[in-house]
Amino acid sequence: MGVTSGLPYDLAIFDFDGTLADSGAVVLKLVNPMARIYGFKSVTDEEVEMLRGRPNREIIKYLGVSAWKIPIIAAHGKKLMAAEIGSIGLFPGVPDMLRALAAGGVRLAVVSSNSEATIRTVLGPDLAKLIDHYGCGASLFGKAKKFLKVIKTAGVRPGRVISIGDETRDIDAANALGLASGAVTWGYATRQLLVDHTPTVLLDAVEDIVASLAPQRAAAAVATA
C-alpha cells in the first residue's frame, strides 16, 4: 500500500453527474422520452421533486422499471447523454477545487455510470489529466465494485479513501467497503435524505470539499486572499 500523507485522505473518489457536472436538466429532459420507449412511467415536475426524497430502489419501483431492462436503459441513456454533451457543464468552482486537491496531494478518481469519454470531454483535457483513475459504466447498484477496483489499482488503504457524491447509493457503497463518505447537497438527492444516511461529512458548497480534504491548502488560500 502507498505511503500515508499528512492529509485526512490520500484518495478522493468522485461521482460525476450531480457532483462535478451540472447535468440534472439533461437527465430530466431524457427521462420521459425513454419512458415511452421502454414502457415505464413518465413523470411530472412535481413527481420529480417528490422522488428526490426517495432511495433509488423506491424510485425504480415507482416508475415501474423492470430489473432486466435497467442495463439496457442505462446503456441507451449514456448514448443520449453523449449526444447532449454540449449542454453539460461543471458546477461553478469545480475546476479550482480539483486543482487545489491535486496540488495539495490528494489523488483523484471518478466512478460513474456515465462513459469515460463523456466525462473527459466535459472536464476538458487539463482537468482530465488530474484524474488518476476512472471507473466508468458503474451499474445503478454496482458502485462498490468499481470503488474496490479503483482502490486496489491506486494501492491505497480503504481507511484513507473518501467517496464524494450526491446520492445515497454513494454513501451506501462507501459504507460497504469501510470508506469515508462526503455527501454534496447541490445534486439530485435532498439534503434531508442525505442526512438520514449519515455520511461522514455533509458538503453544502464546493469550497467545503477543499476545506475537508486538504485543509492546509484551504488555509493557504485564505491567507493569500
Q: In whole angstroms, how far apart are the ends?
A: 37 Å
> Taking strands numbered 1, 2, ... along the chain, how are they ordered across the largest sheet?
5-4-1-6-7-8
The chain-level mean pLDDT equals 87
- The general outline is globular
Describe this structure in words.
This protein has 225 residues and is of the alpha/beta class. The protein folds into two domains: 11-22 and 88-224, Rossmann fold; 24-87. It is built from twelve helices and eight strands. The strands form two sheets. A six-stranded parallel β-sheet has the order 5-4-1-6-7-8, with helices on both faces. α9 links the parallel β6 (161-165) and β7. α11 crosses α12. It is globular and about 50 Å long. Residues 1-5 have low confidence and may be disordered.
Summarize the structure.
With 225 residues, the chain is α/β, with parallel strands linked by helices.
List the helices and strands and how they pair.
Elements lengths: L10 E4 L6 E2 L1 H15 L6 H7 L4 H8 L6 H14 L5 E2 L3 H10 L3 E6 L3 H8 L1 H4 L2 E6 L6 H12 L6 E5 L2 H10 L2 E5 L6 H6 L4 E3 L2 H8 L1 H10 L1
Parallel strand pairs: 1-4, 1-6, 4-5, 6-7, 7-8
Antiparallel strand pairs: 2-3
Helix pairs in contact: 1-4, 5-11, 8-9, 11-12
Brief descriptors of the model:
single chain; 225 residues; alpha/beta; Rossmann fold; six-stranded parallel sheet; 12 helices; disordered N terminus
